Amino acid sequence: xxHHHDHAHIDPVSGDRRVSISIxxxxxxxxxxxxxxxxxxxxxxIADALHNxxxxxxxxIAFAARKIARRPADAHMTFGYxxxxxxxxxxxxxxxxxxxxxxxxxxxxxxxxxxxxxxxxIVIIGGVALVIDALTAMLTWSMQKESVNxxxxxxxxxxxxxxxxxxxxxxxxxxxxxxxxxxxAITIGIALYILYLAFSEIxxxxxxxxxxxxxxxxxxxxxxxxxxxxxxxDIHHVHLWQMQENAAALDCHVVMTEAGWQRLESVKxxxxxxxxxxxxxxxxxxxxxxxxxxxxxxxxxxxx
Length: 304
Description:
The chain has 2 domains: 18-210, Alpha-lytic protease prodomain-like, CATH 1.20.1510; 219-290, Alpha-Beta Plaits, CATH 3.30.70.1350. Helices cover 64% and strands 10% of the residues. A hairpin with a 2-residue loop joins strand 1 and strand 2 (247-256). It is mostly helical and 304 residues long. Residues 21-202 form the Cation efflux protein transmembrane domain. Keywords: Ion transport, Membrane, Transmembrane, Transmembrane helix, Transport, Zinc, Zinc transport. It comes from Vreelandella glaciei. It is a multi-pass membrane protein.
């Protein structure tokens, strides 16, 4: 049986304001980290700056996607524009993977030839970064439960906060013990964490864009529910997918018994009622076939 999404919704204007504040905060932080990284010679600070820059880009993409997603359906996009948020999430996870791979390469090069590093600059800017990363994560925390687009942002910011903590620790070890190898080692650790987050989350947007079945709906349960309604003989050519992130849809052919065919409208209403109540499927396209004229040997799934 499906699970209903019971989240406290934030109104669009308030949500947009939160994302906008996060964009400005991350933009200023990125500049400060790049300057600090160059002055101190710290790769981990520049790594964190690159991560923050990808955050800022992610925020801009997410902000634009939120605006576009609210457009109504039209002749060019008959399903509406809601899926743009899924595309934005996929772009943002992909950029995380690219940043992660690049940082591992740079960290490895620095391990071989550790440069001179100014520890105090690293600690101070790392502390500022931690405050801003924590603020941005807090702004997007309550929004991420209802949007894969904002969840991608939240994970960007959460990983940034952990990265900032690691940078502060690294700067402190350089100050106390001149352990310069710690800086590239922390960079590689940050990169591995970024890759872990990205690869563990990117499957969701890909599944949705590939028209995969909603992961929180029991597809076999949907089929059995329709089959068990009085007047239904069988179903085939089933397509269970997500129109948007939180809007499941069902297309299928329903084979009717002779008795069911005589009261087609009431059977159709019963099917739609069960789909909505049990699985929260509010969009269904049903094609009805009389048992004497049904497709022979039709596949349960797909349309062949």
